[in-house]
Amino acid sequence: MCLNQNHSTEDVVPDQENDRTAPELRPSTSLLEDLVSANHILFDQGVLDAFGHVSVRHDRRPDHFLLARNMAPGRVMATDIIEFNRDSQPVNAKGRKVYLERFIHGEIYRRRPDVVAIVHSHSPSIIPLSVSASTRLRALFHMAGFIGKASPVFEIREVGGDSTDLLIRNNALGEALAKKFDASEIVLMRGHGSTVVGYSLQQVVYRAVYAELNARYQLEAMRLGDVTYLTEGEIESTSEVIEAQAQRPWDLWVEQARARRRQ
């Protein structure tokens, strides 16, 4: 059975709650600023283009999450951020179009209460590895240990049939994708892209950037011959040591993103 019934690529969805949120339940200004920066960084680093999105769990309502309205990430401002409830329905869209694939975020947050931030992208080096029947994305350098021995691939045909548009456009498809994160921090999506999770915006942005770099290096190395990948021990050690420094590139990327937008 195909779960894809609507072929629009964006939604205008009525708000599910009135927007009279008490001040103490509104997201912090610093979180909104960081989410804006994450959008800009991921665009600047070539992970997102006009498509793709990054979200963060609400810091004062953990069953809600924050995601920009339907727009190009490189142009996002704080006023573009919309709050969504646990069912991926907008709370304060006020008629603005929202991302159709918001269900990626909502269902992962529901299944993984430890996850704080999510990036969904169509970065160019990931796509070939999402469709290869014989080669999986694997960690091959110390900056990308979080990828692990072999990233799982989500096959939408197993849930939605063979006539979908490959988009995660409802809760059922989002739930099926979220199950792939039971044992992985990154999941490739066949013919579509990837989704990566993290425990902070800084970490998930780091992971999205270095997942794309790892994929690029893997494709280049495969042209040279046999590839040596990280061992289980190296994966564990590099993840622990290197990811503890995710703030360093974040600070640099924020500074660069702000400078570009002042020009």
Describe the protein's architecture and organization.
With 263 residues, the protein is an alpha+beta fold. The chain has one domain (10-262): Class II aldolase/adducin N-terminal domain (L-fuculose-1-phosphate Aldolase, 3-Layer(aba) Sandwich). 37% of the residues lie in helices and 13% in strands. It contains eight helices and nine strands. The chain has a seven-stranded mixed β-sheet, sandwiched between helices. The chain has a two-stranded antiparallel ribbon with strand order 1-5. Strand 2 and strand 3 form a beta hairpin. The longest helix has 24 residues, at 201-224. The N and C termini lie far apart (51 Å). Residues 1-6 have low confidence and may be disordered.
Which helices and strands, and how do they pair?
Elements: E1 10-11, H1 29-44, E2 53-57, E3 65-68, E4 81-84, E5 98-99, H2 102-111, E6 117-121, H3 126-131, E7 153-154, H4 157-160, H5 171-179, E8 186-189, E9 193-198, H6 201-224, H7 232-242, H8 247-262
Parallel strand pairs: 7-8
Antiparallel strand pairs: 1-5, 2-3, 2-6, 3-4, 6-9, 8-9
Helix pairs in contact: 1-6, 1-8, 2-5
Summarize the helix and strand pattern as letters.
Answer: EHEEEEHEHEHHEEHHH
User: Mind telling me the CATH superfamily name?
Assistant: Class II aldolase/adducin N-terminal domain
CATH-defined architecture: 3-Layer(aba) Sandwich
Mean pLDDT comes to 94
Would you count the extended β strands for me? 9
Taking pLDDT < 50 over at least 5 consecutive residues as the criterion, the unreliable ranges are 1-6
According to CATH, what is the class?
A: Alpha Beta
Task: Indicate the overall shape.
Answer: globular
Number of helices: 8
Alpha-beta content class: alpha+beta
Radius of gyration: 18 Å
Helix percentage: 25-40%
What's the number of domains?
1
Termini separation: 51 Å
Strand order in the largest sheet: 4-3-2-6-9-8-7
Report the β-strand fraction as a percent range. Answer: 5-15%
| Largest β sheet strand count, sense and barrel closure | 7 strands, mixed
Task: Assign the CATH topology.
Answer: L-fuculose-1-phosphate Aldolase
